[in-house]
Amino acid sequence: LPLWERLKRRIVDGELDGLDADLAEALEQRPALEIVNDVLLDGMKTVGELFGSGQMQLPFVLQSAEVMKTAVARLEPHMERSEDGGKGRIVLATVKGDVHDIGKNLVDIILSNNGYDVVNIGIKQPVSAILEAAREHRADVIGMSGLLVKSTVVMKENLEELNARGLAGEWPVLLGGAALTRAYVEQDLAGLYDGEVRYARDAFEGLRLMDAFMA
Ligand code: B1M
Predict the structure, then answer these.
(1) Which numbered atom of ligand 1 lies nearest the CA of 150?
(2) Would you say the CB of residue 103 lies under 6 angstroms from ligand 1?
(3) What are phi and psi of 118, to 5 degrees?
(4) CA distance linking residue 62 with residue 64, whole number of Å
(5) Which band of pLDDT confidence, cut at 50, 70 and 90, is reported for residue 209?
(6) CB atoms < 10 A from the CB of 159, how many?
(7) Domain B12-binding N-terminal: where (predicted)?
């Protein structure tokens, strides 16, 4: 198989053997971020389709996710770092009940490499932990990720909780993850939150929105 097809296959098949050599070869030809966006993410998309249609079982999805994470970790040192922090601080979490973190961690990488301080508190985080981290680290923005449909409900509840505590004005909220849609965020969530809440389709839109929040 040609290199790009082979790399994608490694994600889909959850195949670690030979990954390093392929990534080294890939880095000679394209920037690290492009490899993630155009090749590896394409592989994860295929994994999602296979799993969704019952053609792939969960343990194999997990293996694919591990290969994806390994690949991103190998590529990260090769990504361009334009600024060293200080542009603003975001607390980033995957919401309660949700373990998906590949997207969240990509958002972390993109924001960190573009001048933001990211406090990444991990997966399955209840709103109390998100709030605590936002306070402790004096965050400018709260970022929540979630991939399950039920996570969209959790996000709604979290925004309601911030409102109920009178805290909405303190933090603009950035939301992302495959189960969300722009329409849901803009029509159903924005209206019920007394602060600003925005949807990011991908990590780059997340970066643009951070820039807008901090402007
Ligand atoms: Co799961 N899973 N999974 N899974 N998984 C999905 C989400 C699913 C759509 C698959 C499917 O059915 N086709 C489905 C959800 C269905 C639903 O809710 N209706 C699903 C399911 C059902 C489940 C379980 C319930 C399965 C089970 O146990 N029976 C279970 C849930 C466990 C739990 O959370 N409690 C489960 C478990 C897992 C694994 C552990 C095996 C693994 C996760 C490993 C990990 O993350 N460490 C996994 C994976 C890998 C997937 C799929 C295949 C791929 C997700 C991924 O990493 N994509 C996924 C299929 C899919 O998404 N279509 C699926 C790549 C990643 C880069 O994309 O996270 O969307 P994403 O991030 C994007 C944007 O969304 C955005 O930026 C990123 C790109 O630039 N973004 C943000 C994300 N967060 C952001 C935050 C921002 C801004 C932008 O600001 C704050």
Answers:
(1) 18
(2) yes
(3) -115, 125
(4) 5
(5) very high
(6) 23
(7) 1-87
Nearest alpha-carbon partner for 175 in 60, 106, 94, 58: 94
Output the CA torsion 92→167→209→107 (10° steps).
0
Q: What are 9's two structure tokens? A: 């296959």
CA distance 176 to 104: 8
Residues carrying an active site annotation: 98, 100, 151
**CB 206 less than 6 A from any atom of ligand 1:** yes
Q: How far apart are the first and last CA of the chain?
A: 46
pTM comes to: 0.96
Question: What atom of ligand 1 comes closest to residue 45's alpha carbon?
Answer: 63
pLDDT at 83 over 80: no
Task: Check if the beta carbon of residue 184 is closer than 8 Å to that of residue 201.
Answer: no
